[in-house]
Design goal:
about 180 residues, alpha/beta, 8 helices, binds adenosine-5'-phosphosulfate
Length: about 180
């Protein structure tokens, strides 16, 4: 059995695109395979490690650097780290990628029309009404990754399980996790 080396799977994309849903389902699949996994979700991290941070560029960069720091520590100890955070700025994403090294970037993508229609948290409505300022995609920038390992479009009715399967394929193909058959054997 080869020693687990760990990897960070970094989900970036607009609020409501499906980062949390896909990463949580992926967490379940990986755990079922007996692999060590941790999920760092922006909404959760902002209640714990990063309580008090806001949504200015400075605060978002601090948020991402701290998440990246923890992800790096865990990755070095063989954990599969799943990060789900908007992480709108390319430069700080590339910075954490360079630090961590074993890094798979997944752009979870949906059109603004779809996101405004879904609006699960009601935040797009508030942002459009001017009740929330600096809202990513509406009144704040989102810089798309230029060369993500994977793009998942979630506005075409693709199931969560299919999205998860696509991430698992990439992780297997790049040798970050053993192929499913091997894991079962
Ligand atoms: S990040 O930009 O710093 O990566 P993060 O993923 O941690 O963001 O947090 C985003 C979540 O915070 C959103 O899903 C949403 O629920 C909430 N939120 C509150 N205000 C904003 C805002 N101005 N822009 C984006 N998300 C916001």
């Amino acid at each position: 059995v080869t020693r687990l080396r760990g990897v960070t799977v970094w989900f970036t994309g607009l609020s409501g695109a499906g980062k949390s849903t896909i990463s949580a389902a992926l967490e379940d699949r990986l755990r079922e395979r007996g692999l060590p996994v941790e999920l760092l979700d922006g909404d959760v991290v902002r209640e714990k490690l990063n309580k008090g941070l806001g949504f200015s560029k400075e605060d978002r960069d601090v948020n991402i650097r701290r998440i990246g720091f923890v992800a790096d520590l865990l990755t070095r100890h063989g954990v599969i780290v799943l990060v789900a955070a908007i992480s709108p700025y390319r430069s700080v994403r590339d910075e954490v990628r360079a630090t961590i090294g074993r890094f798979v970037e997944v752009h979870v993508r949906a059109s603004l029309d779809t996101l405004m229609e879904r609006d699960v948290k009601g935040l797009y409505r508030k942002a459009l009404a001017g009740e929330i300022s600096n809202f990513t995609g509406i009144s704040d920038p989102y810089e798309e990754p230029l060369a993500p390992e994977l793009i998942i479009d979630t506005d075409r009715g693709q199931s969560v399980e299919l999205s998860v399967a696509r991430v698992l394929d990439v992780l297997e193909d790049t040798g970050h996790i053993p192929a499913a058959a091997e894991a079962v054997a």
